[in-house]
Amino acid sequence: xxxxxxxxxxxxxxxxxxxxxxxxxxxxxxxxxxxxxxxxxxxxxxxxxxxxxxxxxxxxxxxxxxxxxxxxxxxxxxxxxxxxxxxxxxxxxxxxxxxxxxxxxxxxxxxxxxxxxxxxxxxxxxxxxxxxxxxxxxxxxxxxxxxxxxxxxxxxxxxxxxxxxxxxxxxxxxxxxxxxxxxxxxxxxxxxxxxxxxxxxxxxxxxxxxxxxxxxxxxxxxxxxxxxxxxxxxxxxxxxxxxxxxxxxxxxxxxxxxxxxxxxxxxxxxxxxxxxxxxxxxxxxxxxxxxxxxxxxxxxxxxxxxxxxxxxxxxxxxxxxxxxxxxxxxxxxxxxxxxxxxxxxxxxxxxxxxxxxxxxxxxxxxxxxxxxxxxxxxxxxxxxxxxxxxxxxxxxxxxxxxxxxxxxxxxxxxxxxxxxxxxxxxxxxxxxxxxxxxxxxxxxxxxxxxxxxxxxxxxxxxxxxxxxxxxxxxxxxxxxxxxxxxxxxxxxxxxxxxxxxxxxxxxxxxxxxxxxxxxxxxxxxxx
Length: 527
Hints:
About 30% of the residues lie in helices and about 15% in strands.
């Protein structure tokens, strides 16, 4: 109460706050997904190029997915990749293929129909995801109605535009909540455009200092076991040199169970042209009357069955068709790991905290890897003497361990300060939490009482982090130091110019990446 405002006799009550202001920890695991969705509208409002906050996959479906028709019709297909069977003269060296009637057929996608965001969001929620932002930059483009020219090469979707994705990234400059930038369809760009986008993501993350970028590596969907290092080298060359501590990458892609057999049918083959499939399932040299009848019914719709019922009939009648669909499904389920890693990071943060490395843990839904890296092979990914750009490996381990995330580094692998993801993210959380709390002191008197209040507020927050295991040290004084005051962090000139400077030093927890056990024989002692 300001005594000068009291003008008349009476009794006045002056309430004094017994406790100082406090620092509230900001959220640490809110990814922002940028990419293409089945649609983007809800209750007549468009959500294209709008950064929208969601908290569940149900919300994602309500806004960004096609509505399901009324029963008994099957649910709407949200993602419909198209594949072609291209006959080969000999066993293909690259890409997915199937053998039918002693002939090899490459299963080649129509690149115009390949998208990753929908399934990546599903992976995120399967792995413990929660709050997220979605930036839909458009719906799916028109199918090209033809297969890729070169099976096994990089899939480049002409409907995926660098400009669209950059525009979606720009929208996130107005959002301070997202802590991860994820663009699953970046690997569907050309190598050069992919590099341009990654540099833009790193630059924006570095400028805002609120998020890290999680990258996938082009070529990780079908690595060459002998020349996969070229993909890693290309990735390192295209990420630039700025903001590396705000980026992390994972390799290779992962084989998942996200798409089920009910999500694929004959309409995913040859652009839905059943006549192109008939010579493979019902060849003149080995005719199958049952298959011929089913295909004729599909063409003429004489039985009035649904697509699902016709598809089930084909699976029952033809082992060849069943094998083809299993291989197509396996190829469609190979996904970039960035969405899954966003879920793993969220799960780790919720269970432990951002200071706990999101590694040595499994990925829900991951059942296979396109390449099984050895310890020696991972060494090339983990350490690069020149650029220092570390790429985190996803590896398969025997002994019942299965597929594990086996890396926890940023792209700034040569930095002792920012080598590890957990260190980068912990510091980001502390910085942003203290920044938001300190805003209540803007324009406060720059005097000792204010300085002590700020020190007490930040120290109390850091004590909580230390007790939770986020800082090292046997005592609080070992774990952190907060200074603010004339003669320590400020000069008279600073005060005259309106600056209040606070110095915070923290002893961060770092992961035990290399555990060295030393064994030595002990000489027997005489009794």
